[in-house]
Every structure is written in C-alpha cells, then in structure tokens.
Amino acid sequence: MRTGISETLLRWLCGDRTSSAAVPICVALLSTLVSSAALLALGHDPVTAMAAFLRGSGLMPKPSYAGGQSMLTDFMSYLGILAPMMLASLSVIFCLKAGMFNIGVSGQMLAAGFLATALVGYAKLPSGAARPLVVLIGAAVGGLMGAAVGYLKYLFNIHEVVSCIMINHITSYVTGFFIDTRYVDVITRSSRACSASSRLTIAGVRMGGVRAAIPLGILIAITAVFVVRFLMERTTAGFGIKIVGLNRDAARYAGVPVGRSYVFAMSIGGALAGLAGVTYYLGYYNSIVPKALPSLGYDAIAVALLGNLSPPAAVFSSMLVTIFQKGGVYMSSVTGAPREIASVVIALLLLFSACGAYIRERARSALGKRGGG
Amino acid sequence: MASSEYIVEFRGVTKKFPGITANDDISIGIRRGEIFALLGENGAGKSTLMSMLYGMYEPDAGDIFIRGERVALSSPSAATALGIGMVHQHFRLVPSYTIAENIVLGMEPVKKAAELFPYVDIGAASKRIRDLSKTYGLEVDPALRIEQVGVSTQQRVEILKMLYRDAEILIFDEPTSVLTPREIEFLMDVMRGLRESGRTIVLITHKLEEIKSIADRVAVLRRGKLAAILPASASAQEMADLTVGRPVSLSPSSSSLRARFRDVVLQVENLSVRGENGLDAVKGVSFSIRGGEIFAIAGVSGNGQIELADAIAGLVPPCGGRILLNGRNVTSDGVGRRTEAGVSYIPEDRQRYGLVLDFTVAENLAIKKYRRAPYSKSGILNRSAFRTEAEAMIARYDIRASGGAGTIARFMSGGNQQKTIIARELSTDSSLMIFVQPTRGLDVGAIENIHRRMLGERDKGRAILLVSLELDEVMGLADTIGVLYGGRLLKIFPADRTTVGEVGEYMMGAAS
Question: Of B244, B272, B303, which closes a domain?
C-alpha cells in the first residue's frame, strides 16, 4: 500500500504530461517548508507568516481594514504588479525558446516606460486615445530595443548578454539624465506623475462601498499569454525559432534563417518587456525613479525558469512569486519578522526550481529501478 | 546450483519499459576467457541486457549469476566491484581533464602532504597507466587532456579505465562504429591480447565480419528475444537471417535494372572549400553526376569528404569554384534555396545536424518543409498535417517508434533516427541526393533497406552522391567512383572498370 502511494507520486513527478505541473508544485512545497523552518528558527510563527503573505496579496481577508478598503483593494493591487511580472517572464521565455538569454528586460521596461511617460504621460489627451498610445509605444520601443540586440548578434556575433547589459546601463543613465533635467518632481526626486488618463490603471473606482484601482495591465498580460502560446505552437515563425533554440546546427542544415529568427525572437521578447514597462511605470506606479533599473526585470528570469519556460505555467509562477513580494510588507508588520524573509522564500523557490530537473530525474531513476513498466 | 562453467550467466532475464519488452526471458551463459558477441538489430535489446550486467537497470524477472553466484547489480559501482567494466558507445569522459585524471576519477590515489593536506597522487597513477598501456599495447600519453586527443585514443582511455579497475569482464558497446578501418584492426589486436590475458569480453556489434574475425560465440537477439547462440564459425548468411528474421541479401546487389544515365544534374567545377581549421580541405575538385547515376566518393576519413558534401548542400560557402544544379549556378544560394532547387542531404552527424532530438518524429520530418503546404498556410501551422504526413512516412519507411508520430527523436534507436532522416530527405522529390555514411552504425536489416532505397531512387532518375568510408559499400553500389585524397579528386573510374585493389591504392594516395 505504501509503495503504491509513493509509486503514484513518483509517476506523477516524472510523467510526460504531469511533470510540468508536479515538479513546480513540489518545488513550492519544499520552499514553503524550508522557509517555515527558517521563520521558526527566528522565533516567528510560520503559519501566521504564510497567511500574512496571502492576506497582504488580497487572497485571504485581513482581520481589519482601513476605511473604504477591503480584500478587493489588496487583490486589485496584487493584480496590478502581477501584470508586469507575467509580461516580463513571457519575454524571457520567448527569447529563451530561440536560445537567447534576454537579460535586457529591465532596460527595455525602463525605456518603454520612460518614452511612454514623456510622450503621452504629460500630454493632455483623452484616455481613449492616451491608453492605446501608451500600449503601442511600450510595445514598439521594447520591440526596437530587442531587435537591436538581435541584429547585433546576427551581424556581428555579439553575445546578447553582453549587449543587453550594456544597453540596460545606457538606458538607465540616459533616461535618468532626462528625468533629472526635464521631468523631475522636486519633492519626490522621481519623474512627475503621469496623467490619470494615460495610466493603465483606473484609480479610485468605487465597488460596493470600497475603493479599488482596476489594473488594465492584467488584461494585456492574459492576452499576451495566449498570443505567445499561439506564436510558439501554431506559427511557422515560432517553429523556426524552436528549431534554432534547440539545435542551431540542425537549423542551419534545414535552411531555417537563423539570424532572422534571432531578430524576430528578440523583437517579440522586447515588445513584451516594453509592455511590462508601461504596465509597471504607467500602471502599478505612475512615476519613474531615475537611474534605477527595475529589479522585476531580473526577477522575471527566475519566474520564467520556475515556470519551466512554458507560458501557462509562467502565469502560476508569476502569481506565486508576486504573493511573496507583494505580501512581504504586511507579513513583516504582522509578525515582526524582517521583510527580507520574502526574498528568502523567493530565493528558496529559485534554488529548488533549479533542482527541478534533478527531482524529475531522481523520480525517474527510482521508478526505473523498480522496473519501469 | 549454478554451473561454474560460466563466468556470467543470465537466467530467464526479462526487462520491460513502458510500451516495450526490451528483453524477454533471456538465458545466456558466457564462458571465462572467451569473446562473446551479441548481435541484433537496433533496438533488439542488446544494450539493455548489457546495461543490466553493468548495474544500470535491474531485471524485472530472472537472475544474473557472476562466477556461479547469484548477484544483485544495483549500480555500476556494484558491477565494478565484481570486476565488470563497460566501454559505452558514447564515451563518458571529462573533456577538460587529462587522460590520467579521467582514468583515476572516482578512485583517486590520495596522499597527504605534510601528513595533513590530501592530494591526488597523479604521478603514481600515471606510472601505473603507463605500465598498463605497455602491457596491452594501448599507447596513450597520460598528461594530455581528453579534448586534445582523437576518438580512437579516447576509446583507449575507456579501455584503460576498466583495466585500471582490474575489470575481468569487459563489455564493449559497438566499439568500432567510431573507428577507421585501420583503428579497427588495432582494436581487434587489443581485444585478442585481453583474451590471452584471461579476460572475458562481451562485444555488442552489428558487424558480421567483426564477429567472424574475433569472436568465439555469438548470441543473436531479435526484438527482445534470444534467437540463437551460434559458434562464430557459423556462416555470415545464417547470422544475418537470424538477426532480421527472414532471408536477407548481404551484398548490396546492384538493382535488376541496369543504370540508365540521363542529363547531368550536378556539375562541380574547380571547387575549393576551407575546413574548420582554416586550411583548404577541398582543393579544386571537378566532377559531374547524371540523373540515374550513383557517384561514390571513396577515401579515408578526413580527406575532405564532409567539407565537399557540406559545400554542395550549401552549409558552407566554397572559397573557389562553381556548383551548378540542373544547369543553374547555385554557388551563392543558401541551404533553403538549394533545398527548394532540389537537393536532399543525409548528413554524417545525424544527431548534430540531421535531427532536433527534443522534437517529435512528426516535427523532425517537417523541419525542412514546414514553411510550405501542407504543413502550413500563410504562416500558420497545420498540426494535423504534421501527424498525417508523419504517419504516412512512418509506414512507408518502416520507422519503428513506440509512440508513433509523437515519439521524441532522442528516445529512438540510432537506426530509426537514421530512417527518419532518410524518410524526410527521400520524400522531397529532389533531383540530387547526398548520402554521407548513410549506414554507419546500423544493423544488417537497416543497411539492406537503405541500400535498396538508394538504388530505387537512382532508378527513378535521381542523381546520387554517396560518401562512404566502407569500400564494400562503394564498390557494391556505385556506378562511378571518385577517390578523394588530401582534398583532391585523384581519379574518377566507372565502377565496372576498376577493382577494390585499384581504388584502395588511390585511397592511400599511392597512385598519385
């Protein structure tokens, strides 16, 4: 009986269909367990802390709320920061399918957010015109930046990690210079707040007696999941990209245009990062801190890997990581544990997700020893 | 109880994998000090059986006896402790380590400096390795790194690894598939020497001539079952028939139809190609192939064959000369345009070029044509066409894959991977078909199948360029033979006006 259960578990972990869900779940459980142990060691109640993460993200009711707020307020805010996380991780996933490591998500986000703010954020346009323009500019700016990286690799064989990191810093300093000289808010030292009509969040909506901000970005992010999946699974361009990513020599042999695939993959990846940028700077926030690359652009790499590089799974890994990031503040205020526990949990998630292949392999060999079929 | 006549004995061993019985109730006894061959088609279960002996799998049923005692081989280290060693088909070496380091890896002789700091005494190891290599004629320089030495030396390192661990039962998994004819001779001598020294050798192979020349007995496996155990003196024909399960023809008989040449399809003029090392690998080569003609390039490995084939297929740009296909200059066209102009290419390195190993069979069958109907229409893939096309090709080319069109290429046997490539390349209606080493590492049944198809394509009027290191294959199939030596085409003969001896002399460059 006992062997029956463990065998089912093993099978579930390494089965072709189930492992893509089972391994991340196993990873999440392991990280929760280990971080609970860390909380215990620090003298905090892990159950309260874990619940506080969920409460802070609006997934469980808090004991009390400030006036005009409810669980819905927190949940909408959670969705607001979930959207750029999903988009950024999709960007990483798409580029990795072509074998390209897009470490330039941060720079692409910042450039897109900055240009959309500068061009639309301060113009007096009605929301019906401003919001589509922001989205368009975000995708176009990010796409062009990605394409530039792709071209550098195609034409001069410059490794994308090198060019991405350089472009990240150039973007950070150039946008920082313009914010400091032209768009700065003297009190906050950030850029001036963009207009409400250009923001991809409808702020202060009353719903059943509470106020919440409705994030439009989440709609963009969900659409993007379907678009990316469609591009990858159903189009010739996506098929070519996968051949290039899995075996570049075979791609050359089969006559797949390798260089063009790089450019295409990087421009789509860049466009997704650009969308992440506008939903971040003109959605969740409404201003830009100068000379600071958004760490979300790097976290997205982790989220993409946690999601096994599959777009639907990346939705879940984004949700998970965002729970800890978003709920960290509330957890800290409730338990008195340091806020950095959230980073510990995320680090553990990453550590264990990096072992995902190992877990699968262990399950497979354990099954193999028992006789496979 | 177990008769100690045998050093290794399998009794009723069965091993199942999802969807397939790899070994079905196999009983074999191997005598001390003999060379025992295991013969069978790709996927017949030879490697699985030996993997169990080496502790990589455990049998589902049946027992393994070593030196008359029933043993549980739960891991390769358990097997090593019992004196069992294995040379895998794909070597297991660390490229950036030296030969000595690779050999001692896992059982390093540790000494302590100043009675305190442990370090690996590589000097002592090197000395023992030198002694071993002298005793068995396995010359290596222990100080060289694996990445600096060739395939045959790497194989010697694998053999030394077993000897270093005092292995008495040595398993060789298709050891000759990566070697040139001269290296094969050398390996055979080493194996004979090992037998003299009292070791027992199990040789997994497809090649009948190896069994005839070196083995004492042979077990034939067919689809997971033991078909027969024969003395090596049995006829090659009998072994081949048992392997395939029906009578097969061993020599590639030129087809019943006499070759009828048509118009010139491929014209190569004064072609030069630079190799990866920056030197000219192909130097001013000119020849032409007509429709309905098999033009074979003979030569010892590394004389520019691969570079020539790659240049004609469009994978590398030539540094001089012209390539004309059906009268049109295609020299500056890339692979994609040449494929459309009618070039098929079966590359030497199947896993690196020919396949995307993580793709399914259906996807691999489509990688050259996915941008056109029926696979796609205006940029959108038609997944059901992938499946129907693949199913038709699987049936037509007898590709055996446990999961049908959805099988991942990585999990198929080498022979079926090659069949997948051949199915894709032959189903394109190309006017020129390039075959590089198409039967390397395949079993007799698959070889016969591929030879038959090649002749069939020739009879349909296609031009075929065959590059092969096997002189028998060249002599048996070609209508015209060109000998490549040092990057130059030394001589072109009509096949019926030359002999093996003459071609062989040119291959050694003697006649130049």
Answer: B244
Question: Cα separation of A16 and A259, whole Å?
Answer: 32
Are residue B91 and residue B195 in the same domain, yes or no? yes
CB contact under 8 A, B356 and A243: yes
Please tell me whether residues B476 and B336 are part of one structural domain.
yes
A235, A243, A246 member nearest B381 (Cβ) = A235
pLDDT tens digit sequence for A175-192: 999 999 999 999 999 999
pLDDT confidence bin for B257, thresholds 50/70/90: very low
Do B275 and B224 share a structural domain?
Answer: no
The domain total for chain B is: 2
A237, A247, A255 member nearest B339 (Cβ): A255
Q: Are A239 and B370 inside 8 Å of each other by CB?
A: yes
CATH 1.10.3470 assigned to domain A70-317? The reply is yes
In what side-by-side order are the strands of the sheet with B320-325?
B280-290, B264-274, B320-325, B328-329
* pLDDT on residue A369: 59
CATH number at residue B31: 3.40.50.300
Q: Does B376 touch chain A (CB under 8 A)?
A: yes
Same domain, B30 and B105: yes
B224 domain residue, yes or no: yes
Tell me the pLDDT of chain B averaged across its residues: 88
What span, in angstroms and rounded, lies between the C-alpha atoms of A250 and B378?
Answer: 24
Question: B328 and B226, same structural domain?
Answer: no
Q: Say if residues B512 and B490 touch (Cβ distance below 8 Å).
A: yes
> Are residues B276 and B227 located together in one domain of the fold?
no
How far does the CA of residue A36 sit from the closest CA of chain B (Å)? 36
Cβ contacts below 8 Å, chain A against chain B, sum to 86
Same domain, B310 and B165: no
User: Are A236 and B380 within 8 A, CB to CB?
Assistant: yes
For B456-509, the pLDDT digits (tens) are: 899 888 999 999 988 888 988 999 999 998 899 998 989 888 888 888 888 877
Q: Which pLDDT score, from 0 to 100, does residue A130 have?
A: 95
Best interface-test mutation with A: which of B54, B335, B357, B372 has the largest number of A CBs within 10 A?
B335
Per-residue pLDDT of B70-91, as tens digits, reads: 998 888 889 999 999 999 877 8
* A8 Cα to chain B: minimum distance (Å): 15
B17 touches chain A (CB under 8 A): yes
Determine the residue among A233, A236, A258 to mutate to test chain B binding: the one whose Cβ has the most chain B Cβ atoms within 10 Å.
A236
* Residue B368 contacts A, CB cutoff 8 Å: yes
Domain that holds residue B133: 6-244
d(CA B130, CA B128): 5
Find residue B344's DSSP bridge partners.
B433
* Subunit contact A243:B368, Cβ cutoff 8 A: no
Q: Write down the ipTM of this complex.
A: 0.85
Q: Is residue B389 part of a domain?
A: no
pLDDT at A20 over 90: no
Does residue B229 sit in helix, strand or coil?
A: strand
User: To the nearest whole angstrom, how far is the Cα of A244 from the nearest Cα of chain B?
Assistant: 9
Question: Tens digits of per-residue pLDDT, A64-83?
Answer: 888 888 899 999 999 999 99
pLDDT for the residue A365: 78
Chain B window 266-325: which residues touch A at a Cβ cutoff of 8 Å? 313-315
